[in-house]
Amino acid sequence: MSSTGLVTGDDGRARPAWASANPLLRDYYDTEWGMPVRDEQGMFERLSLEAFQSGLSWETILRKRPAFRVAFGAFAPDVVADFGDAEVERLMADAGIVRNRRKILATVTNAQATVRLRDDPDVVGGLAEFVWSFQPAETPAPRTVAEIPTTSPESLALSTALKQKGFTFVGSTTMFALMEATGIVDTHLVGSHRRGTSGVWSTDHS
After folding, report:
1. Whole-angstrom Cα distance, residue 31 to residue 194?
2. Could you tell me the CATH number of the domain that includes residue 127?
3. Distance between CA atoms of residues 187 and 150, nearest Å
4. What is the torsional sign of CA 69, 75, 79, 80?
5. What is the C-alpha separation between 203 and 197, in angstroms, rounded?
6. Which of 47, 84, 173, 196 is the most exposed place for a label (fewest CB within 10 A)?
7. Is 122 among the domain residues?
8. Angle at 135 between CA 133 and CA 140, to 5 degrees
9. Residues that are catalytic
10. What domain range is 143 assigned to?
11. d(Cα 103, Cα 88) in Å, to the nearest integer?
């Protein structure tokens, strides 16, 4: 591993250490992480999984993702918004997912808030458009792992705004991770083969 934190794989491509060894994480890094998510259902899924990840490894969440999708109706907000006590107890008994009652209840609450956003007179569009409205003027350009931020003024503002709209489990650090995962900021290390590939940021910012 270089001093920057990048590892050159057997394919000659440079990746951060966390995405280098495990095939599941490597595939996620190469194909999905940091790519733009602009649809409501996709953004709601990412928001939900980031909340479930709190205190756990992302590998754990990725391994359980297929089970999460089955358990939460493919993260269709209208479906999850209608979950009641019976569905919550079903989820608490589902060993395929993370059985944390607070996080499960937060997901239901956030689905209901997502549905309400559609008709919010102060919001143009729905959840995805609302989250993207907090895109910063420029993206970080970290050259080492130590330079990668874990929060930002925009993620704090997004966190505050979502809480005002009735969302929960949306702290500023979790929201920064969401912004990284959905392409709103590009925190791929300069030198990574994925830097600048989202199409969101020009090479001037990479």
Report:
1. 9
2. 1.10.340.30
3. 10
4. positive
5. 10
6. 84
7. yes
8. 175
9. 28, 50, 58
10. 6-205
11. 11
DSSP string, 87-130: HHHHHHT-TTS---HHHHHHHHHHHHHHHHHTT-TT-SSSHHHH
Asked if 107 and 74 count as a contact pair (C-beta separation under 8 A), the reply is: no
Does residue 1 lie in a domain region? no
* CB half-sphere exposure, 122, CA atoms < 13 A: 5
Write down the pTM of the prediction: 0.95
Distance CA 134, CA 48 (A): 18
Cite the annotated binding site by residue number: 188
Q: What is the pLDDT of residue 206?
A: 40
Phi, psi of 184, rounded to the nearest 5 degrees = -70, -30
Q: What total number of domains does the chain contain? A: 1
Q: Kindly provide the b/e burial profile for residues 156-190, where b requires at least 16 CB atoms within 10 angstroms of the residue's own CB.
A: bebbebbeebebbbbbbbbbbbbbbbbbbbbbbbb
Tokens of 161: 């705004």
Q: Residues forming the annotated binding site for Zn(2+)?
A: 188
Contact present, 44 and 110 (Cβ < 8 Å): yes
Residues with Cβ within 8 Å of 95's Cβ and at least 6 positions away in sequence, in order, are none
